[in-house]
Amino acid sequence: MQRRFLLSAGAAAGASGLLSACRIRKAGDNAGGSGPQVRWRMATSWPHSLDTIFGGAQTISRRVKELSGGSFQIEPYAAGELVPGLEVLDAVQNGSVECGHTSSYYYVGKNPALAFGTAVPFGLTAQQQNAWLYDGGGNDAINGLYADFGVISFPAGNTGAQMGGWFKRELSGLASLRGLKMRIPGLGGKVMASLGVNVQVLPGGEIYLALDRGAIDAAEWTGPYDDEKLGLPRAARFYYYPGWWEPGPTLAALVNQQAWRRLPDDYKAMFSTACYEANLAMLSRYESLNGAALERLVSGGTQLQFYGDTILNAAREATDQLFADSARSNGDFRRVYTQWSEFRQQIWSWNRINQLSYDSFSFGQPN
């Protein structure tokens, strides 16, 4: 995909504040590593309390510092400390910060194809998503979109398959979705809207109060470990599965192109490596923690509920229609969706043989 990878003159002028803020000094001006001293700020979409997801930003920060011997340092900030959690892309684009840690699908209002950078309904698992991004041309496709914003994206975290959200009332079929106020972002939100849900998009730190006080009737976040930390089990009783809209969502580290170009090549390699490590570390941590957290929730009175085939089939049909409509109306969406669909068909055909057959047999056996 051919895209503009140079900032326009106006955008470059707007980034001048960033270039002055990105402090690079010669070695010897400060104690530490042998390279030039670089100090960046990273805005994130996450509260401090979520040690796993905010931990992705901390992993990047820690690793670039270690790899550079302290010469390259990044300070991560929680949502709201520098900019609101859903405005990280804007901050990186305009140069308020050098980099950010966020989810691409928060910005589907700017370009709906950005959803593929995180997850789309009935899409790829975490392992499949990584395969697409790293080896199937996916990250190149996503960076083709981000080029219009003067930003570069790196996969930098994955939560694994998510749960389907917390509901104050038990669902009784499709009709019970109509009129519900639910926090759910991305294309999953658009699908839910087509099923009659009144969709809200809130950053993580605002979900509990909205759900507890009745401003919303339902909400999804990630999975048992984070949901427990946010207090969602205290605000709602019914915990639905599966999270069909996010089977393997990727989090992104966004970097302003002007700041990136100013980095020495070895620092670029350090940052890329740190993002790669953050991606693997976050997925591993969620997979390790969610099982025990789910046991605690169920012991505490949470009621697990399966969405049921009626809702899932309706959601799948609505998803297919959304993909078709978006591909017709948006050239960017069509290009990414076409490439993504070809990859999905190939890897699903393979995983039906090697993965699904194993899972279907093994998961059905007693522990």
Task: List the main descriptive attributes of the protein structure presented here.
367 residues; alpha/beta; six-stranded mixed β-sheet; 12 strands; 47% helix; 15% strand
Write the layout of secondary structure elements.
Layout: H1 9-14, H2 16-21, E1 23-25, E2 37-44, H3 53-67, E3 72-77, H4 88-94, E4 99-102, H5 126-135, H6 138-146, E5 151-158, E6 165-167, E7 181-183, H7 186-194, E8 198-200, H8 207-212, E9 218-219, H9 224-230, H10 232-235, E10 238-241, E11 250-256, H11 257-262, H12 265-299, E12 303-306, H13 309-329, H14 331-362
Parallel strand pairs: 2-3, 2-4, 7-8, 7-9, 10-12
Antiparallel strand pairs: 1-2, 4-11, 5-11, 6-9, 6-10
Helix pairs in contact: 3-12, 6-14, 7-13, 9-12, 13-14
What can you see in these coordinates?
- The termini are far apart.
- The chain has helices at 9-14, 16-21, 53-67, 88-94, 126-135, 138-146, 186-194, 207-212, 224-230, 232-235, 257-262, 265-299, 309-329, 331-362, and strands spanning 23-25, 37-44, 72-77, 99-102, 151-158, 165-167, 181-183, 198-200, 218-219, 238-241, 250-256, 303-306.
- It is globular, with a radius of gyration of 21 Å.
- Helix 7 (186-194) packs across helix 13 (309-329) and helix 9 (224-230) crosses helix 12 (265-299).
- With 367 residues, it is of the alpha/beta class.
- The strands form 2 sheets. Strands 1, 2, 3, 4, 5 and 11 form a 6-stranded mixed β-sheet that branches. A 6-stranded mixed β-sheet has the order 8-7-9-6-10-12.
- Helix 7 links the parallel strand 7 and strand 8.
- The longest helix has 35 residues, at 265-299.
- 47% of the residues lie in helices and 15% in strands.
